[in-house]
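thought: user wants a sequence for this fold. calling inverse folding tool.
action: design(structure=
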């Protein structure tokens, strides 16, 4: 599970970093993360749990902190 979540976290951060548009990049990154989770056999993420930790989420994005993003995703993972 850890390897899968680290890969999802990395892709999520990269999409947020490289996506050229201000609007829609978060939704796109979340959709891709959810798709990756589904492909790995999980039921997706409860993004409301990530939204409750918005300061950590923004910090992970701004610093490209894969470990922190993975921690947030593990907490939001629907199994």
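)
observation: tool returned 79 residues.
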């Amino acid at each position: 599970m850890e390897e899968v979540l680290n890969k999802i976290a990395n892709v999520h951060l990269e999409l947020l970093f490289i996506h050229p548009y201000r609007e829609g990049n978060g939704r796109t990154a979340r959709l891709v993360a959810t798709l990756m989770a589904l492909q790995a056999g999980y039921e997706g993420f409860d993004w409301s749990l990530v939204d409750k930790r918005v300061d950590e989420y923004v910090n992970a994005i701004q610093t490209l902190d894969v470990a922190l993003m993975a921690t947030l995703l593990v907490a939001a993972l629907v199994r």
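thought: summarizing for user.
answer: Here is the designed sequence. The chain has five helices and no strands.
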